[in-house]
Structures are given as C-alpha cells and as structure tokens.
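User: Hi! I'm working on a homework problem where we have to compare a predicted structure to a textbook description. Could you give me the structure for the chain below?
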Amino acid sequence: MNPIRLALLSAAATLAFPAVASAETADSPASDIVVTGRGLEETPATPAYDISEIGRERINSSASGRLEDVLSSVAGFQQFRRSDSRASNPSAQGITLRALGGNATSRALMLLDGVPMADPMFGYIPFSAISPDRLSGVRVTRGGGAGAFGSGAVAGTIELTSANAEELGLFSGQALVDDRGETELSGTLAPELGSGFAVVSGRWDRGQGFWTTPASQRVPASVKARYDSWSTSVRAVAPLGDDIELQARGLLFEDNRVLRFNGATTGVSGQDASVRLVGRGDWQFDALAYLQTRDFNNIVISSTSFAKTLDQRKTPSTGIGGKIELRPPVGEAHVLRLGADLRTGDAELQEENYAAGAVTRRRRAGGRNTDIGLFLEDDWTLGNLVLTGGVRADRWMIRDGFLRETNPAGTTVLTNNVFPDRDGWAASFRGGAVFNAGGGLSLRAAGYSGIRMPTVNELYRPFVVFPITTNANAALQNEELRGVDVGIDFAPSPAINLSVTAFYNKVDNAIANVTLTPTVRQRQNVDAIRAQGLEFGASIHVGTVSLDGSLALTDAEVEASGTQAQLNGKRPAQTPKVAGSVTLAWRPKPGWLLSTTLRHVGAQFEDDLQVDTLPAATTLDAFAEIPVTGPFSLVLRGENLFDEDVVTRNQAGSIDLGAPRTLWAGVKVRVR
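Assistant: Happy to help. Predicted structure tokens:
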C-alpha cells in the first residue's frame, strides 16, 4: 500500500466517522455513550506480574522528546545499542528486558493500541515514528506472556496506549530548537465528533546532528550524524452502540540518517493501518486487524578506503495480522479470556556489493514467517487472593526462504540457495498469584514460558558494520523461555508505591552473533542465556514534589558447548549488570513542571568474546515547562548535562559516541 493510498483511506475513514459518532439509538441518546479509544480493561490478576507504568506527564517530559528515552526510565529496558534514533542504524533498535539480548532483534513485544510495532523483517522498533505526545500511558510487563501475540514476548511486553481527545485538547503542538540549530516540530488536532473523536497529528525532526566519532579518530570523510525524520498519524474512534466502539488508525513515516562517514546513509519508511472493534457488554470482545508495509536502505562505507562497499538499497517487507479475544460472562469470581491471533511477515533483501566504485555482485534474499496462536487465560478471585493461569499454542511456519547471488550483469548465477520450509507446534504457559495482605502490602509470584521465532533478517540477511561482517543462518531454531518471578508491592497510600522483584529467566536456543574470525560473525543458537537478578521500583509523591526511581541488578550468562565453548560463562553482548534511573519533579504551580533525571548504565561488552568494553555511563537530564500566557508555555530541555562520553560502539578501539550535552528551548501550546 503506497503512502498516498493510505493517506486517502485514513482521511476517508476520518471523514466517515462523524456520521457514525453522532448516531443515536431510540433507547440510548448519544450523550450517554462514552468511548475511550482503548482496549478492554486489565484483569484482576494483572498485578501478579512484574509491571511498571509511565503516565502521560512523564512521557511528555523527557529531555530528548523521544520514546526510547522515556522507556529507559524502566530499569532493565534496553536497545541493542545505547544510541537513540538520531544516531543509530535503525536495524539495531531492537528492544529487550532483563539482559536477554544477544543480537539486535526485539525480544520484548511492543504494542501500540494492541498492534505489534516490530518491523516484519528485522524485528526492530521504528521509534522515530511513535511520537510520545500522542500517547496516554505505557505499561511494561517483564517476563514471558501467554496472551495475544505472546509468541514475541520472551523478555516482556510494552503496551502503548494512544491519548484521547480529552487528554490531547482540541489543538496542541510545540516547536523547539537546540544549541546546534536542530529543530523539533509537532502538532495534534483532536476534535470531538458527536460521541466519538478524531486525532490528526504530525511531527518533523531534523538536524545537522552531532559527532559520533571522537575527535582523535576523525578523518576527512567523517561527518556528523545528520537526521531528518517525519511521521503523521490519523486516528478515529466512534461508538456503534451503547457498549461497542470502532477504532481506526493510519500511520505514515520516513526517517533518513547519515552515520559516521559521508555517504553512509540509512533510511526507513512505513505505512501502517489498523481497525479495531471493542465490545464492553456482558460478552466482552476485542477484534483487531492490521497491515504494515515497511522498507529499509543502507549504504556501507569502508573505514579504510572510505568508498562504498555495500548498497542495501531496498528491503521491502509486509506484515499482516490480527486477533480476536472473547471474555464470556462466567461469574463475578472469574475473568476468562480466550482467543486467537495471526502474524505473518514476508520480506526481500535487494543489495549490491561494490569495489572500486563498480558493482561486483548482486544479492537477493528473503522469506516468510507466520505464527497462528490460540490462547486461553483465567483469573480466579478468592477473597484477597487472585489466581491466574493461561496456556497458549502456536503453529509456526518458516516458508519460501532463499538466497540468490549473480554477477553484476545478472547473467550468471553465483549462488542459488532455496532453503527447506519448516513448521511445528509450540506450547507456552503462564500462571501466577497475588495476595493482598492489607495495609497496601501485596505478595506475588509468577511462572511462565514462551517462544520466539527467528526473524527473516536473522535467517537470511547478512549485514556489515565495517570491518565486521555478520552472516545469516537459515537453520536457526526457535528461542524457548522459562522463567519465574517473586515480588512484593507496598502502597500504604496513593502517594507511595514501592516494589521489589526477584527473577530467574532462561532462554534456550538463544540467538546470538557468534564470532568466527576477527572480521566474521554468524547468527547462531547458543545453548542458553540465563539471567537472574533483582528489580526495584519506587514512586513517592509529597505535596508538589515527586520522586520516581527504578533499579535493575542482573547477572546474565551464556551457556554454550561444543564449537561455542569459548562463550560459556560469558555475559551476553551489550548487556550491563547495573541499570538505574531516578526522576525528581517539582510542580510549584498549576501548569508548571521542573524535573531532573539521573540515569546510570553499567559497563557492558561490545562483543560475545568480551574483548571490547563499553564503559559505564552516568547522565543527567533536565526538563522545565513554564506557563507564559493563555495556552502558551515555555519549554526548556537539557540532555546529558554532564556532557558524559557515552560509548555506543567499540570495535577494536574504533568508537562511536552517543548524544553530547544538548540544550533545547521552545514553545508549547494547548487549546482545549
């Protein structure tokens, strides 16, 4: 689906919604109908799992204004690299929790209004397409999931909920500029239409970027990490009766970046559309369907000749899926969930190798992955005790895998591999209990399992971060998770919420980038990645002051044997032992907000053999919003105020750095 067609369909849907939204029935006037734009309510056993929530105020008060920065306040959350979406290769923006990484693919499931957001080819998250000011809240559940789309949640689930018209106001927007002359511009129009509403929003970020290469390593070909990204979203919600609402959403985005060297461009684009039907009557239901078309391109520049060596010019992919969840009335003591979901992703890599400015080889590779899941889960309330148990069955299919290479003219086939189709069934489980002991004290325990299929990218697409080439592996097996949590929550008043969780997770057949030679790696299944540790959370509000903190202490190790025995006992690549964040906020007057965030990430290793180290980093951010007049406010933001050197890549001493100290100033407007 091309962007113009999607835009026209989204606009048509939005224009059609007012008629639906203003419709009334003879028995129920429109004024009695309330739509939320959300899915079904959480179940009584939701607190049995290790959960962190981020409200709209914190979402919209990050120093960078980027979603990945917001999520990093949840200790244990990480991308494969420490870079944000201004200065990283998009394919490295996979997300995980609990140090269960190993390569750049997401092991945590991210949902936006119930729709999986991971790229169908790579498994990365298009962070630049998801503007924080469009969101109402974030809920992070650590540990495996057995519900809808649970096959992608071996490390946890991150649920994003869009803001409705009441939260957004009729019009809101902001314009900011930083001390390097980079700009951020966003705006949202959210009119109420009868008993429903529509939201039209856009965002544009662009800038000359910052130096990711240290001054001592710069050469004439070195450039700043320039970026230029935009996204636009259309969303509409309307009632179809007293307790049924229809939700539709369209998203278009494009993001272009330059990394390290002149000519080393990378870019992503996408067009997403989804429709959702939510029923809140006696028979509750949530039906969802979505379509995603994405593309990726990347040019690799040699760090010795500074000439183009690889042009990954096009990587089209398509994701199609949906779910149906039903909650029948089974009595006040039970909440029964049953349903099915489907996810399919197919993609094709189109790239050319270069030497001395000429094409030396043309490569095509791709395939299709499909997962069909059936799930059932029940919460059983017994006074102060809530029990929960769920089971999920997945029919997974890996199809149409191929790798074809030809000479530059395309007349001679050099490689023509057609990989065998594979399929099978996998079962996963989830169960837990939460006991409300009184006085705000809750005790909880949970156990779970899960699977993750290798992505099309892991199976068939090689990639280069010069001078390292990482090869694909069409024989990769599914990852399989087993884990347990035990936790205590203490909330003696609405102003105080403290939690601690002990966990043990093990992912068998974990997919990692395994070193074969100094310049060659391959994606392989290792025996397992085991992670155990403690997670702490605190939220304290006293008058106009609040403190929110999170800390993760994680001991993670690779279990490996045979030809991979050199990895046994080593920590997985890109995983720190310690990660923590604390935010102190002050609201002296209505509309005012002053906050600072101190964040620490411990040392981690660049590679699986623990040769190259990424030093620990501590950063301080600040945010201020001050009303000026009427609907206008002054916004001030400061990133990395200590100007800490945050090393994001270290390959044999060749280093990339994250964002330096950056100061922003701008204006925010909100008209109700």
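For your comparison, note the following. The chain has one domain: 3-671. Confidence is low (pLDDT under 50) at residues 1-31. Good luck with the assignment!
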